[in-house]
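Issue: ligand-bound run for adenosine-5'-triphosphate - logging full I/O for the record.

Environment: standard queue, default settings, no custom constraints.

Inputs:
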Amino acid sequence: MAQEDVFKKLVSHCKEYGFVFPSSEIYDGLSAVYDYGQNGVELKNNIKKYWWDSMVLLNEEVVGLDAAIFMHPTTWKASGHVDAFNDPLIDNKDSKKRYRADVLIEDKLAKYEEKMAKEVAKAAKRFGDQFDEEQFVTTNPRVLANQEKYNKLNDRFVKAMNDSDLDGLRNIIVEEEISCPVSGSKNWTDVRQFNLMFSTEMGSTAEGASTIYLRPETAQGIFVNYLNVQKTGRMKLPFGIAQIGKAFRNEIVARQFIFRMREFEQMEMQYFVKPGTELEFFEQWKQRRMKWHKTLGYGEENYRFHDHDKLAHYANAATDVEFKFPFGFKEVEGIHSRTDFDLGAHQKFSGKKIQFFDPESNTSFTPFVVETSIGLDRMFLQIISAAYTEEVIKKDNGQEDQRVVMKLPPALAPVKLAILPLTKKDGLPEKARSIMETLKFDFNCQYEEKDSIGRRYRRQDAIGTPYCITIDHQTLKDHTVTVRHRDSMEQDRTAIDTLRETIKDKVDITTLLKQL
Ligand code: ATP
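Outputs:
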């Protein structure tokens, strides 16, 4: 099945099974804003817990924070967002559609990459075990020609972005003959800068009101609290502050479901270090964050780093963790060495001394910062797109059937255990309810008695429930139940008394944390 079709199915699956709904849908929705349903919110909370515990619970030197969304407007002057948090936009005159100029060019670069990857895949198939990829990519004329085009385009692109050269970006779009995906035409406007911050007024009267912004990132809430946390927590370098919270960006083009939203959530950790040690910690966090992702078990080959050629004004090293979504490799998390830019700027704009006193060297200095910044919603999308699986299965009568199963890591699944009485009579529901009463304190259980067992299994597969237990007549006699395992669909008979210990271990977040 084409990857776009898989993606469309995933989006409708998310709606059908209470993971994600369009915001205010009864009014036809609001572009790039989404609500999380009964299963979505559980999955989201579990992802948050996995992240939070991996930062705050496992690292003595990392502490948490929950800063307000509204901040003093000068914060955004100091951070550079008022002047420079822009995206270059371009309109197609025929379709009247708006695009990010940089994204159009990145898509063109990805096309060259795709062409090269196709040549490699073709040759690998033709030569089988004899295939030497290294030799092929350094000698094959078609690969070399595409690589040269890629490099030339990439160099021009990086230069134009670094110089904020808007005409340069437009020239690239024209010369590379990039056309509008909707109209197919190459009839483009000029490229203009567009600030991504949402603003509003604070204060009851228009005269007394001042313009404030909905924060476009959570990081600044951490920077302005650096001194508070360092002093009250008596923190020594290196130390980190972690925060999960909403961020808002007026994205020019919001598409691909919850990949790019106008209201989203970030999980950020700022690690304060001695100047000169930042690249060492940058490397350390790069590896640690990659391990966090790979621990979910979705395959090494689906992750890669993308080191930045174009560095933001505040960074001296930056990389993205990319995941292979149904629409290609895309950023899930950014890891940035942000130097002393932010603390330095807040010191300048606030006039307050924002430094660290090092008793060993008896000096004060502004710490450097290594940041890990991951989008919670994008992580959610990553997990569900990796988990969504369509399978053909054999029924007991030998016929084939289809099932959709969300292969979520048990520790992240919204419901851990479904409790299913075989029938609605003979005391089976009462027995099932009594099991639920004892287990509901340990993990999220769901009771279901409607429809055949087969249909109930399918509904639980569709939301990724790792275990289902069936209460039947034998249960009343010997206090055992059938445990059905989501992925293998195997069933075994287990004593009710041992359910808690056998399941709890496997569905607890600590199963993931212990692997880090
Ligand atoms: P992009 O290049 O995709 O616009 P970015 O580099 O601007 O992202 P950062 O500012 O580094 O993103 O933000 C850190 C993380 O926040 C990203 O890796 C992503 O997971 C998430 N994120 C950023 N913008 C959005 C958005 N509009 N919707 C959902 N998640 C987002």
